[in-house]
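Dear colleagues,

As part of the handover before I leave the project, I'm documenting each prediction I ran so the next person doesn't have to rerun anything. This entry is a single chain, and its sequence is reproduced below.
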Amino acid sequence: MQRRTFVKALVLASSIAALGSASQSYAADTIKVGILHSLSGTMAISETALKNTALMTIEEINAKGGVMGKKLEPVVVDPASNWPLFAEKARQLISKDKVSVVFGCWTSVSRKSVNPVFKELNSLLFYPVQYEGEELEKNVFYTGAAPNQQAIPAVEYLMSKQGGGAKRFVLLGTDYVYPRTTNKILRAFLHSKGVKDEDIMEEYTPFGHSDYQTIIANIKKFSSAGKKTAVISTINGDSNVPFYKELGNAGLKATDVPVVAFSVGEEELRGVDTKPLVGHLAAWNYFMSLKNPTNSGFIKMYKDWAKKNKIPNADSVVTNDPMEATYVGIHMWAQAVEKAKSTDTDKVIAAMGGQTFTAPSGFTLTMDKTNHHLHKPVFIGEVKADGQFNVVWKTPAPIRAQPWSPFIPGNESKQGM
C-alpha cells in the first residue's frame, strides 16, 4: 500500500516537473519586453499612441521572424500618470515579469522616477521623448531630442529674420523638471544673444491645468511693449487642449505672437480646432507630413494596425515624433540583440553604439557610440488648418546630441560626451 502510494506520488511529481519544464521551454521561446506608458490620467492623451506604436513594432518584428529566432512578448502596464507608480511598475516589469528591456515614459519626472530602478537592477530603458538633458545614464538610451536638437534651434529660428525676428520671449511650461530645466538653458542662451531679463516672461502651471484665460491676457499685455514677442511652450499633456483653445478664443494669431511648442504634435492637435492656430509652430525631429517612401510605409502600417486592432477613431489616427522615436528605438534594440547574440544588458549596451536605422523622417539615424543619444535632424513646422504641419525650416543632416548644455555653467568639461 505504501509502495503504491509512493509510486503514484513519484508519477505525479514527474508530471509536474514535465509541465514545469514545458512551461520553461515555452518561456524560453519568447523574449519579454516591457511597455511602460500612462494609459490613464493627464498624460494618456500623449502616451497611449506610444503604447500602440510599440505593439505595432513588436508585431512587425515578430512577423519577420522575431529576434534571435524568438518572438517578442509585450508586457503592458499602466502607471496612470502617477510618477512614483512608474518606479513600482518598472520594478514589477523587471523583477516579476522578467522583461529584457523596457520602452516607456514621457515626462522627465517619470523617467527620473524609474532611473534608480534600472540602475539597481541593471536593466535597459529606451526613452522616446524630447527632454532637458543634464543627464547621462548607463541604463538609458535616449531616442528623443536633447535641447540642442530641438529647443535651441527653435529659438534661433524665432530670432531670425525668416522666423519673425523676435526680441521678447514668454517661457510657458508645465511645472516640473523638463520645462524648468529647458527654460533655464533657454534663458542662458537668450542672455548670450543680448536678451535682457526684462524681455523674458516665465510662467508655469500644474499638470492638468485648464484655465488659461489670465495667462493669455498677461501674454497679450507683455507683447504690447512694441517689440516682437514669441511664446515658447513646454506645456505637457492634456493641458495643451485648453491652452490652444484659449489662444484661439483670444484671437492671438501667429502673425502677432507666434507660439512654438516642444510637446505638441499631431496627436495633441486632434482634440483642438486648429483653424485659429494656423501659423503657430512646433519643433520636432519628425512630422507626419514629411514626404518620403519610408514615412509613407510607416503611416500606412500604423493606420492599418489601428483599424485591425479597433483603436478608437482609427480612421483619423496620426503619427508623430515620439511615435517615430519609439519605432526607431525598438528596432535598434532588436538589431543590437542580434549583434550581441544575447539580451544581456551589458552586452546589448556594448552593441548599441553605432547602430543605424533609416527612420520615417527620411534620414538614417545613428546611435552615438559614447553618449546613448541619437543623431537627429531638426524640423520646424507651422500648424495647418487640418492639424498637420508645413515644414518651414530644417537642418540639412542629423546633428549630434549635447546631453550637457554648454549654456549651463560647469558643463564645460562634459562637452565631448
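The radius of gyration is 23 Å. Residues 1-27 have pLDDT under 50 and may be disordered.

All the best with the project,
I.
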